[in-house]
Design brief:
Elements lengths: L1 H17 L10 H4 L18 H11 L12 H4 L65 E2 L5 E2 H6 L6 H5 L7 H17 L2 H10 L11 H13 L7 H6 L8 H11 L18 E2 L14 H4 L8 E2 L21 H9 L16 H4 L6 H12 L36
Antiparallel strand pairs: 1-2, 3-4
Helix pairs in contact: 3-8, 3-9, 11-15, 13-15
Length: about 400
Amino acid sequence: MAARAWLLGCLAALAACSSDANGPETEDLRERFDLETLGPIPYPPDNAYDPDRVALGRLLFYDPILSGEQDVACGTCHHPDFHFADGRQFGAGVSGVGLGPQRVLSVSAVSGTPIAATLRNTPTVLNTALAADAGGTTTHTAPMFWDGRAVGLEGQALAPLASRIEMRGDAFPGTDEEARDLAVDSILARLRTVPAYVDRFRSAFSTETPVELVNASTLARAIAAYQRELVTRNSAFDRFVNGDDAALTPVQKDGLEIFFERGKCFVCHHGAMFSNFQFMVTGVPAAGRDDTGREMHTGMSTDRFAFRVPSLRNVELTAPYMHDGVFDTLEETVRFYNDGAQPRHADVTNEMVEVIIREPLDLDPNEIDALVEFLKALTDEGSEIDPMLLTVPTTVPSGLSPVFGVRAGASY
């Protein structure tokens, strides 16, 4: 298996690094572990940076007009107050009242049928612009979602519109697959009736002359343009890599060494984004959901229970953890790996779990604490992002209440 061969190579490199005669006291941690900060954003050829597109995308991101029942927006589950996630174990879209962990699901306003939570934990949108492919190349065509079923931010942008439990509700009939085109076409028709949106699309895509300027491609590119600018580059780790020796505390520096050595975390979480972006089986305990991971997208049994390795940037801010939000704290998550991926999902055999993950680490409590402190050094809430991009608009062109839509006014 290619992934296993790659892991063994990394372990060999780790052993060589650990045997360096100079010892950790005299080595420069930046060179020793080849530490990196984030590179430039890879823009698609047809979606270069354009402030008009970013501004349009921001309005669309928070406008419930994109949802079938007009009661939920992209920003409902990816809200700035929750670091562009939602702080819940599982996402709560259509029919919900409130925000974040306090959000409560109800029934469809159209059919009266209950709406369930999503199958997986909601990942943050922050830094998704710098996702990479499985080969480690940062690209605008990196796979998205826990199972990699979409290509790039543009490919991801419209998928929730067709999902009944995320944004479609029961406004459009059929399964998610059957209703996809109808949902998108209906939402585009709505947008075309809003003069302010038509004007903004015209400004944002002034060089294009399709029959309908407000179309699936321009809608996806506008939303992606906004998300692509949400990159956090000023964590304590970044300042340390850029030469500020005092940016990390002594305990965080100890944790950094543990991360790259005894903790073996770097094998899966390396590079500037702290992820290899591969699909791996960790065997985390099930949270009462029938979720076989990437297999649900590819249909291949070899992908059973495999999920994309997430970035660790801002991980302190985005609890709960793992694809099913089964761990509430970083400490719990680290202990899971320290114990050799235990407790284990009942249907995941030892052979299915990567060798590096199923071997106990034998870290003591102080080492676990130091490792957690280092992970906190990856936090930056957006200190160098245009503050406007981190706020919910007070109004949106549809006239609906941003984020809440027709259910606005409910307490939370």
